[in-house]
Amino acid sequence: MPAKKQSPTDKSVIFAELEKTDVQKVRIWYNVFKNMKLYCIQNFWRENPTDNWRFGKAITFHPEDIDKIISALTDMREWYEENAATFPVDSGLE
């Protein structure tokens, strides 16, 4: 999902949200917090589907690392596609 058209002066830009369950999601976003520019992949959670989302653990990185991260994720996907059939069923990796 491409980022919504937002001004570069906005304090946050959400590029994607991936719902894992009705009480967990992962957000890929840019955020300004305490005057720091954060580029994040962050978990969000809530107790019940009707509750507000709460911040969970995040991985933050610099914009110059984005290409390296994309390359590593591409390598991971290719490796997985080549090896997924060999994973034991109970490994949790499928």
Number of helices: 1
CATH architecture: Roll
| Structural class by sheet pairing and helices | alpha+beta
CATH superfamily: Transcriptional Coactivator Pc4, Chain A
Q: Any idea of the CATH class?
A: Mainly Beta
Features:
94 residues, 40% strand, four-stranded antiparallel beta sheet, alpha+beta, Transcriptional Co-activator pc4, Chain A, 1 helix
Give a brief description.
This protein has one helix at residues 66-83, and strands at 12-21, 24-33, 36-45, 54-61.
Structure in words:
The protein is an alpha+beta fold and 94 residues long. It has one domain (12-84): Roll (Transcriptional Co-activator pc4, Chain A). Helix content is 19%, strand content 40%. It contains one helix and four strands; from the N terminus they run E-E-E-E-H. The chain has one helix spanning 66-83, and strands at residues 12-21, 24-33, 36-45, 54-61. A four-stranded antiparallel sheet has the order 1-2-3-4, with no helix packed on it. The longest helix has 18 residues, at 66-83. The radius of gyration is 16 Å and the shape is flat. 1% of the residues are buried.
Itemize the secondary structure elements and their pairings:
Elements: E1 12-21, E2 24-33, E3 36-45, E4 54-61, H1 66-83
Antiparallel strand pairs: 1-2, 2-3, 3-4
